[in-house]
């Protein structure tokens, strides 16, 4: 008789590379994509996969450049850890144990040593209520670190990464869910909420789908289910806020992204067209059509030289 041994999966290939928004390195030489349990690093010059960052034991749910070191990235996963990598050499530097499945990760230059993550309010993976928390990353020599300093920032946020964005180098953050837009100002430690009606008589569907913040101005762009884009201003004065509406997409806006200088806003959806709106002169638009499949994510390199679009056909 042959003894039945437990089968253990050592490596799994063929995962999607468009599951989460990709990241372009500061020098525009590398493109980093979450792919199954790993992070794949591609050369933008040759398109070859030059590194595969392996260590997570469950789905990687976000990749993020470390603001204080352009050669390092954070990755987060449903395995409840945040990992710090040197992505050019493929070296795992640190593993931070959070203990909850993580949906997405954010950081800003003005919050040194802190990452922001979206996770369930309960440890249960099936929980459908999510919160945004600040995690202080301990400075120590250990490679495996338990994080103990975690503070809640916003409750009841969307688990979709494109529904949260940081504005003005981390002065405030915007969170969109359903028909509500919430803006949280860190200095005041105060949040303002703005609501839209479900639909109008003309058949528009106002549900929020994605959000992006202008890098320099107090302006928040939101995408909606009916293809409209709203530009919100004066959000730190709850009664005096204004918004203007842009409309080209015929169906839901799936991704919005400002260029690093804030001169343009990029949008995409099921039309397979990348739309570039001139900020301040939104009637001027440029189109990159026939991209092959619906756009799911848009990323821009830190120097603004490269745009990257992810598509529903991987």
From TrEMBL:
Alphabetical keyword list: Nucleus, Repeat, Ribosome biogenesis, rRNA processing, Transcription, WD repeat
Gene3D superfamilies registered for this protein in UniProt: YVTN repeat-like/Quinoprotein amine dehydrogenase
Keyword Nucleus carried by entry: yes
InterPro entries: WD40/YVTN_repeat-like_dom_sf, WD40_repeat_CS, WD40_repeat_dom_sf, WD40_rpt, WDR75
Pfam families: Beta-prop_WDR75_1st
Presence of the UniProt keyword Nucleus in the record: yes
WD repeat intervals: 53-95, 201-232, 246-277
Compartments reported by the entry: Nucleus, Nucleolus
Residue spans crossing the bilayer: none
Domain of life: Eukaryota
Identification of the protein by name: WD repeat-containing protein 75
Organism (species): Goodea atripinnis
């Amino acid at each position: 008789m042959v003894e039945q041994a437990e089968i253990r999966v050592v490596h799994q290939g063929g995962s999607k590379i468009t599951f989460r928004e990709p990241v372009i390195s500061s020098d525009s030489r590398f493109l980093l994509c979450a792919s199954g349990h790993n992070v794949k690093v591609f050369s933008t010059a040759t398109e070859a996969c030059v590194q595969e960052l392996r260590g997570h034991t469950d789905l990687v749910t976000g990749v993020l450049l470390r603001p204080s070191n352009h050669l390092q990235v954070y990755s987060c996963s449903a395995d409840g850890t945040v990992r710090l990598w040197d992505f050019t050499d493929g070296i795992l530097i640190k593993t931070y144990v959070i203990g909850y499945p993580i949906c997405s990760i954010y950081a800003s230059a003005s919050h040194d040593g802190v990452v922001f993550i979206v996770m369930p309010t309960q440890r249960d993976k099936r929980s459908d209520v999510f919160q945004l928390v600040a995690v202080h990353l301990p400075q120590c020599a250990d490679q495996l670190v338990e994080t103990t300093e975690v503070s809640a920032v916003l409750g009841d946020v969307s688990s979709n990464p494109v529904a949260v964005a940081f504005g003005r180098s981390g002065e405030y953050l915007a969170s969109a869910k359903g028909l509500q837009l919430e803006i949280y100002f860190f200095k005041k430690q105060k949040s303002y909420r703005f609501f839209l009606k479900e639909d109008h008589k003309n058949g528009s569907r106002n549900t929020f789908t994605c959000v992006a913040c202008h890098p320099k101005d107090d302006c928040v762009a939101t995408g909606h289910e009916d293809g409209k884009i709203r530009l919100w201003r004066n959000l730190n004065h709850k009664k005096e806020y204004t918004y203007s509406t842009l409309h080209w997409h015929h169906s839901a806006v799936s991704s919005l992204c400002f260029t690093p200088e804030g001169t343009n806003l990029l949008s995409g959806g099921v039309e397979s067209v990348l739309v570039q709106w001139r900020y301040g002169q939104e009637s001027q638009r440029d189109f990159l059509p026939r991209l092959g499949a619906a756009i799911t994510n848009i990323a821009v390199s830190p120097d603004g030289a490269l745009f990257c679009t992810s598509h529903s056909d991987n």
